[in-house]
Amino acid sequence: MKANNETNFFEWVYEIVRQIPEGRVTSYGAIARALGTAGSSRMVGYAMRAAHRANPPIPAHRVVNRIGVLSGKMAFGSPSLMQQLLENEGVEVVDDKVVNFSAVFWDPQEVISL
User: Fold this and answer.
1) 31: domain CATH number?
2) How many distinct structural domains can be found in the chain?
3) Among the four residues 27, 78, 92, 101, which has the most C-beta atoms within 10 Å?
4) Are 14 and 52 in contact (CB under 8 A)?
């Protein structure tokens, strides 16, 4: 599904993020590719930073960078909250990086249903 205007872009991102299963993570780039906007990883990051205002809630803690680093952790108001949320779901994090990233990676292009 291609996001075709900036006004709806955040909502398209949120629809994908709401589908990430508990205990799994995806990346900003994977979300951008699933939307047909492969060069918009940074915009996905902006959407995640604004996700606290979305309703229904967005599990933004499940979105990490392309190598599994918790690059958005400061948006959670506490440097450890993102890690705590992931660990509560069984995702192991060491030194701000998801352990065994490829095993817990969820590719939205394979299962997306917008």
Assistant:
1) 1.10.10.10
2) 1
3) 27
4) no
